[in-house]
Structure formats: structure tokens, C-alpha cells
Amino acid sequence: MGFVRASASVVVLAAFLNCNLNSIHAAPKKVHVVVLGSARQVPYSKAGDPAGAEGGESTLKIRALVLDGSVKEWTTGEAHDVTDRSFVVRRALRLNDELPGEKITGPGAQKERWVWQRGPWLLVDRVTGHETALKLPDYDPGVSHVSWFRDYAAYCGVTASGKSLYAVVAQLAARKPVIAKKVGALDPDPKSRPETVCAEPAWQREPLRVIFHPEGREEMSFDVTPGSALLVEDSGDEPETPAKPER
């Protein structure tokens, strides 16, 4: 009986030592550095970005989204801190504008043709370095001017048919918008719409309220019932690549 107990103790001790050995040799948590670079101007026009550009715009201010010293994306506009570690910012897209067979090699070759466009909103986690393209309900790049407060986004949205304008308040990670109220009919032809269909909404803290300013219509205000944030941020505590113990 004493031999059995001694053997069991040896097995438990060996398992304990093996667990500690693996912990010692586990890779440390990787620390990411996420920053937005300095702003610079790039050529921009209504021809290159029919949906996102306003008349008369000739340049677009962009900044690099830099992860661990490397440029990961290009962004435009102001960033908004949602939490102390996550922020949202709008992506800037650089698209190839060459027609098939337009590139010519050799003497007299044409320069590559590229255009810039305003893209979707991104949610960026400073700890993990992860970024997620946000799918805001009824968001339209040519109409929706987003105003952020906490984890809420307020903007005028356009239905899939392009014929209706809605006042929308969306919460990050929520399946449905907090507010979706019809403002009125909308001309489906973007060329027939006013240059600014709906100005950026304004937020009021107490009581929590958002005010919409659709062009040619009376302003609309809605009270927002504040709730808990639904955004879930990864802990980032797990090592990315465990190191193998030395033998």
C-alpha cells in the first residue's frame, strides 16, 4: 500500500513540474503598437469617388494606420475613441483606375492611374491590433455623415432601393439599430439629389438626445435610452505562438 501511495505522489509531482516547465517556456504576450501617422493630402475628385466626394473637392486628407511599424491601412477623417483601447476611423481606399490594356510599357509609357475613395468605417483594437470593417445599417457613403457618441453612431441612412431616407442610430455589436425612423422620400438618382442630403447629426447629453438636419426638411430629434455597451474586446492575454520547451 505504501508503494502505491508513493508512486501516486511521484506521478502528481511530475505532472506539476511539467506544467510549471511549460509555463516557464511559454511565449510572452506580444505587445502591439497601433498609431495613426501624420496627415498628408492626396489628389481627390468627384470623378474618382462619385459617391463619397463633394463638389469642388480636389484633395483628401489621409493618415496611415500603422501596426508594429508597418502601414496596415489608409484612413481619412477624425478617429473616435469608443473605449480606452478601441477606436473607430474611416478607411481610405486607393483603387486602380486603369482600363484593360491601358498600361503601356517602354518609351512613352503612361504612369499608373490610381484614385482615392472614402471607404467603410473600421473598428481598431489597440491591444490586439485587430481591425473590423463595420457594417452600419442602411449606411450610404454619399449620404451618411456619421456622428459618434460613446459606442453609438448617428447618421441618415438610405434603404436598399435608394428611395427612402431614414434617421438611424446604431450601437456597435447590436444586431438592430437603436433608432430607425423614416425621414421621407429620396430621389434614387444621386445626380438629382442636393450636394448634402443630410448634415451630420448633433448629440445632446442630458437628456441623451440626437438631432438630425435633413436638407429641405424640418430638424428631427429623438431621445435615446442609454444602455450598457455591447462591444466585447478580446483579452489579448493568450500568447500568439507558444515556444517549445528546450530539451
Structural notes for this entry:
With 247 residues, the protein is mainly beta. The protein has 2 domains: 28-134, no CATH class; 136-227, no CATH class. The chain is 10% helix and 39% strand. The protein contains 1 helix and 14 strands. The chain has one helix at residues 2-25; strands at residues 34-36, 40-43, 59-67, 70-81, 86-96, 114-125, 131-133, 147-149, 152-158, 164-171, 179-185, 198-204, 209-214, 220-223. The strands form 3 sheets. Strands 1, 2, 3, 4, 5, 6 and 7 form a 7-stranded antiparallel β-sheet that branches.
> How many H/I helices?
1
- The proportion of residues forming helix, as a percent range, comes to under 10%
Mean pLDDT: 83
Helix/strand-derived category reads: mainly beta
Q: What's the shape?
A: flat
Question: How far is the N terminus from the C terminus?
Answer: 35 Å
The structural domain count equals: 2
**Unreliable segments (pLDDT under 50, ≥5 consecutive)?**
2-8, 10-14, 238-247
Rg, rounded, reads 26 Å
The major β-sheet equals:
7 strands, antiparallel
DSSP E strands, number: 14
What distinguishing features does this structure have?
2 domains, flat, single chain, mainly beta, seven-stranded antiparallel beta sheet, disordered C terminus, 247 residues, disordered N terminus
